[in-house]
């Protein structure tokens, strides 16, 4: 079993917080650590195991926590990307005590069996805050500690106020929605219909739509569009494929429709997103002017 120590990960002296989201997660060995961890599933799905007999499915938008000393691992992962938010609550001072008055934060702090699902747009806002924290910790500009603490408190308040539903691994509706989302993810390039998706959940269309919204905070179709936009972002950042080809590979009927959907969720065009990603990755000098 692996054991992760805080001194290996908290690289800023006397500032116990670190966020990791670098690479897609594969199956892991049993491990534990001596710090508190919040986890946000940014992409994909898998299984979080707490023992040989206790586990639950996790998918994009789920939030859960692992306390110090708790043994766990991940299995059956599929293209899963996590935000691992490692910290010691004491560094937040009196604000942590106030945050624990929020039922969601208190539940997460008390037990790793508590899991919540963030609505799509809440998750997007949360990811923006986490990426800003990662940037501050990486660049360490003047007063970065103040900025990181403020951003992290904003993230926790956003989480605590979110209109979320607590999920239970024994809930057959959650398992049904999980199967439907897996089917969506594996067939993004295909023309999917509501009848086809609900069939994989073994629910009739109307009840499926009701359950899906209750579990994820959005409709099946809007969720599918967001999955396709995430696929577009991945292809834009990792390949040099033409945008028209990316639209087809992501399941959009044409480039124009893809661009409208992309701008609606990302507030920029696919071309601008690709250029911005390359500026961050290689520096401004490597990007020719438009």
TrEMBL record:
Molecular function in Gene Ontology: DNA-binding transcription factor activity; sequence-specific DNA binding
Record has DNA-binding as a keyword: yes
Listed Pfam families: AraC_binding, HTH_18
The organism's place on the tree of life at top rank: Bacteria
Keyword field: DNA-binding, Transcription, Transcription regulation
Record domain HTH araC/xylS-type: where: 178-276
Ranges in a coiled coil: none
Cited PANTHER family: ARAC-FAMILY TRANSCRIPTIONAL REGULATOR (PTHR43280), HTH-TYPE TRANSCRIPTIONAL ACTIVATOR RHAS (PTHR43280:SF28)
Name of the protein: Helix-turn-helix domain-containing protein
Taxonomic source organism: Victivallis lenta
Lineage: Bacteria, Pseudomonadati, Lentisphaerota, Lentisphaeria, Victivallales
């Amino acid at each position: 079993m692996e054991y992760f120590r805080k001194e290996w990960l908290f690289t800023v002296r006397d500032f116990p917080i670190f966020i990791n989201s670098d690479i897609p997660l594969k199956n892991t060995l049993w491990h534990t650590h001596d710090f508190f961890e919040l986890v946000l599933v940014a992409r994909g799905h898998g299984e979080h195991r707490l023992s040989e007999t206790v586990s639950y499915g996790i998918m994009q938008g789920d939030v859960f926590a692992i306390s110090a000393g708790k043994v766990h691992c991940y299995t059956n992962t599929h293209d899963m990307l996590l935000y691992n938010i490692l910290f010691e609550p004491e560094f937040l001072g009196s604000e942590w005590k106030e945050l624990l008055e929020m039922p969601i934060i208190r539940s997460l702090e008390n037990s790793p069996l508590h899991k919540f699902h963030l609505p799509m747009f809440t998750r997007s806002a949360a990811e923006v805050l986490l990426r800003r924290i990662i940037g501050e910790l990486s660049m360490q500009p003047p007063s970065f500690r103040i900025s990181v603490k403020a951003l992290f408190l904003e993230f926790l308040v956003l989480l605590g106020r979110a209109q979320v539903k607590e999920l239970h691994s024994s809930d057959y509706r959650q398992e049904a929605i999980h199967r439907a989302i897996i089917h969506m993810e594996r067939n993004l390039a295909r023309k999917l219909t509501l009848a086809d998706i609900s069939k994989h959940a073994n629910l009739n269309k109307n009840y499926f739509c009701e359950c899906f919204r209750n579990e994820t905070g959005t409709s099946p179709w809007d969720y599918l569009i967001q999955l396709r936009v995430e696929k577009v972002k991945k292809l834009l950042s990792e390949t040099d494929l033409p945008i028209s080809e990316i639209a087809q590979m992501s399941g959009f009927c044409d480039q124009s429709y893809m661009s409208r959907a992309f701008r609606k969720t990302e507030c920029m065009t696919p071309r601008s997103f690709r250029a911005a990603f390359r500026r961050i990755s290689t520096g401004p000098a490597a990007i020719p002017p438009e």
